[in-house]
Amino acid sequence: MGTQRPNEETSGTGRRALLGAAVLGAGGAVLGMTGTARADSARRGGQGGHGGLKSLPKPTIVGHRGASGYRPEHTFGSYQLALDMGADIVEAGDLVPTKDGHLVCRHEPEIGGTTDVADHPEFADRKKTKLLDGVSTTGWFAEDFTLAELKTLRASERIPANRPHNTLYNGRWEIPTFEEVLKWQDEQTRKRGKQVWIYPELKHPTYFRKQGLPLEERVAKLLRKYRKDRRTSPVVLQSFEPTSIERLNKLVDNPLVVLLSSADTRPWDFVETGDPRTVADLVKPAGLREIASYAQGIGPTLDLIIPRDAKGNLTQPTTLVADAHKVGLVLHPWTLRNENPFLPANFRKGTDADAYGDVFGAYKAYFATGIDGVFTDQPDTGVLAREDFVSG
Ligand code: G3P
Ligand code: CA
Description:
single chain, alpha/beta, TIM Barrel, seven-stranded mixed beta sheet, three-stranded parallel beta sheet, about 30% helix, binds SN-glycerol-3-phosphate, binds calcium ion
């Protein structure tokens, strides 16, 4: 089985030791920076970051696809709100290429679920069925559109059943490019007087490389252009394909994170190259040691941190946090969401698909394992949960 997953999964150490030099709280400043240093950083725009990945507040709150619990994902409306809510780092964006080779921010190649492309009769004949990492997928694909064509579309809410209020914003924002994101990062850093961090993910690198649209070189070229390709640059790169991260490791010096889906899955690059290992192999000490030779962190699904039982209730934590820390890897699992269907069963309240469960209880359980951060669709909730955790 590859890493292709449904679009939306329904799915410590002493807490004070986690704090390090972190400055915590909503809108918390860049770690350990004086006012003058912050102003300097802001002036330098994208060259900030200084202490690298480990200088981020802990547990780090990552705005997943922005603040996608409140706005259509991967839009500047969503990214902006994530910063306003105090996210330490914004997942801007998940990256896919256009037909003419530009990188744009969409969660996956298929754009029918997050844009109004179906309402554009001029693109009706672009609807196709493709094999995407072994899964037959029907819709409209970013790689079949030029950037100019994609820019005529508008973003919409992916999961209106869970987030009916977000549909208010359908049609408001266009699809951002990665280059626009890099400029936005610098603008926001200057405007806010604190370094803004981003956490882009390379989507389906093998799939795109086979189509003559490799991602890694394009990402590296843009990072170099904006001088954000350094170990201390405030840009963390992530991918579900370990070989893509290894490739990036040769191209840039940015902090790198290998994403890990459920234990029984196999990264798609492994499927294509005949590497028999599954995620269950990668989370063993030998697998983690190998990852640590080219990456600084892992992004496991939350179930690898605390598995759920057959009823969906949390069980006991695995040794993954301790094992990863032993080889120097940080852990940023995904994804905490406030709504019932995405929470472990024992943290749900009622059965409404758009109602919030006891997400603070879930945060408490996950933070207690010693994770270094977490991806969340609702960064404001994450920031409050961290405050609770830190204050004991
Ligand atoms: O990148 C962390 C998390 O976003 C991985 O899941 O599918 O939402 O990109 P996905
Ligand atoms: Ca992602």
